[in-house]
Write a structure and sequence with these properties.
This protein has 6 helices and 21 strands. It is mainly beta.
């Protein structure tokens, strides 16, 4: 085990408990993936024998309990961090002729997978704005410690009951994600801050806050990453144009919508030039608030033309890199140095090592800050 780093595994139906010794002895590796654009997940690999008590795990997850919950906590220098709070969704058994070399792979996703199992079509939400509907849906899953954190849209269009009443369509997760997409928002579940608690965030993608310790390359003893590779996409930028109808002249007024907001400032000094303009012609039939919200949703994420892929050793980096936060890059040259948004992190924990691979994005070349925070 690495000095200063300790991993805890809790597992069980309902309220997870510390994993028994046979499970910890058989554990070969743990992989946790946090993704800003998709549901987060985990994977456990365990060595198993024919008479191993770990077969009980297969029986439990094979239908004896609705969900088997897994909690992964990493403690670095006495500071605990919840890496994953998820539910087991699949098991695979790789048999071997050699005794003790069979591998049981347990795969799962974060607790939001429970929201994607049952459709609730037709439930009405009279005179309820989108954020109130999301909070009501998330409240069903308090058993998983899920607490809603919703941010009201800047341009809110509350339906009048005598004109229309919104109704639920599809599963809870699909409906909440559809509401997020319509408003240019994101929805995801973050484990923590305490074990067993989860924050269900519905709101704008935020690219503000204190950056994580910088990723440094080509700086001799100060280098703390294993590799970095940079990609520049020249064709991804697009600008949507919505049409707002003048109530007096009945003429449609075009309005371009850039991918910039107060919570998502540019991270690159030279932003990409839009290569195309997307005309959202159906917005003329909507109210001005609804039309602008649809334009913001279409513009969201279209300006990220710089992508960075890399890997690091947590022991050398000294911290656990987190997804959905900012991080600095130094030593890559003037065009690519600066702040980035951490889009995806995959953490692999084995006996004696803790490594991470990651993907960073930003909307432009050259840094917007004079110095990258250490």
């Amino acid at each position: 085990m690495l000095k200063g780093i300790h991993m805890s595994l809790l597992i069980g139906p309902g309220v997870p408990l510390p994993a028994p010794k046979p499970v910890m002895d058989a554990l070969q590796s743990i992989q946790v993936t946090s993704d800003a654009t998709a549901r987060s997940g985990f994977q456990l690999k365990l060595a198993i024998e024919n008479r191993s008590p770990l077969h009980t795990l297969l029986l439990l997850t094979g239908g004896r309990v609705p969900w088997l919950r897994v909690l992964i906590v990493v403690t670095i220098n006495s500071l605990p961090m919840v890496m994953m709070d998820g539910l087991v969704t699949r098991q695979e058994m790789g048999a071997s002729n050699e005794p003790g070399l069979s591998v049981l792979t347990v795969t799962g996703e974060d607790v939001s997978v429970a929201m994607d199992q049952q459709e609730f079509n037709g439930i009405p939400y009279p005179a309820m704005p989108a954020q109130a509907r999301v909070a009501l849906v998330v409240a069903k899953y308090a058993m998983y410690g899920m607490v809603p954190l919703t941010i009201p849209p800047i341009f809110t269009d509350v339906p009048i009951p005598i004109q229309s009443i919104p109704s639920h369509e599809g599963t809870d997760l699909a409906y909440v994600q559809r509401l997020a997409k319509e408003n240019g928002y994101v929805f995801y579940v973050v484990p923590g801050p305490l074990p067993g608690a989860n924050v269900a965030y519905w709101g704008p993608e935020t690219r503000l806050g204190v950056p994580q310790p910088a990723l440094r390359i080509g700086q001799d003893a100060h280098t703390n990453v294993e590799n970095l590779s940079f990609k520049l996409n020249q064709t991804g930028a697009a600008m949507p144009i919505v049409f707002i109808q003048n109530s007096i002249t009945r003429m449609a007024i075009p309005l371009p919508i850039p991918d910039i907001s107060l919570l998502k400032p540019p991270l690159g000094l030279i932003p990409p030039m839009p290569k195309e303009f997307t005309l959202l012609k159906d917005t003329a039939k909507l109210s001005p608030m609804a039309a602008i919200s649809k334009g913001l949703a279409a513009a969201s994420g279209s300006g990220d033309n710089v992508t960075v892929d890399g890997s690091l050793d947590v022991f050398r980096y000294g911290h656990v890199l987190k997804a959905r936060e900012l991080v600095g890059v130094a030593g890559a040259g003037l065009a690519f140095d600066g702040l980035y948004f951490v889009n995806k992190v995959s953490s692999t924990f084995k006996s004696g090592e803790f490594k991470q691979s990651f993907t960073l994005v930003r909307n432009g070349l050259m840094p917007t800050v004079p110095l990258v925070p250490v």
